[in-house]
Amino acid sequence: MKIAVSSDHAGFALKEEIKTLLATEGHEIIDFGPYNEEPCDLPDYVYPASLAVAEGKADRGIFVDGVGYGSAMIANKIYGVYAAVCQDPFCAKLARSHSNTNVLCLGGKIIGSGIALEIVTVWLTTDYLSHIEKYTNRVNKVMQISEKHLKKLSGV
Length: 156
Ligand SMILES: O=P(O)(O)OC[C@H]1O[C@@H](O)[C@H](O)[C@@H]1O
Description:
By secondary structure, the protein is α/β, with parallel strands linked by helices. Helices cover 46% and strands 15% of the residues. The relative contact order is 0.17.
């Protein structure tokens, strides 16, 4: 898969570890930065990375900040992006199988890299249960909310 990654200073170290895992697994990585641990502002990196997912330039996004919710707040404001914060593999499994998320957000200050890499692996390898109507109904309802309230990107 083509995967957009981004972070802020608080997520930088974990982003780099995730990149190593993704490369090992044969994924194509688009790194939207930052490229060092200098203090920075999360939206400057997560917003362009979210756009890449929304525009289909990346299949998925994995964003890391201190606690994860900051990345999800930004990503979920973009039409076509469905982001979940996951702190354990069970949540990662359901974020895919029930909710068909295309962005995973992690907190570098919350979880160690061992759990984080397991979360990434589970999230990337779990399929959406698109044959189970209750899940598609719920996902469709979320999509309808974004149709109503979010601005569609032009040319997508
Ligand atoms: O290092 P500072 O700037 O204090 O805190 C940054 C982190 O704290 C939370 O807001 C976010 O998770 C962000 O990544």
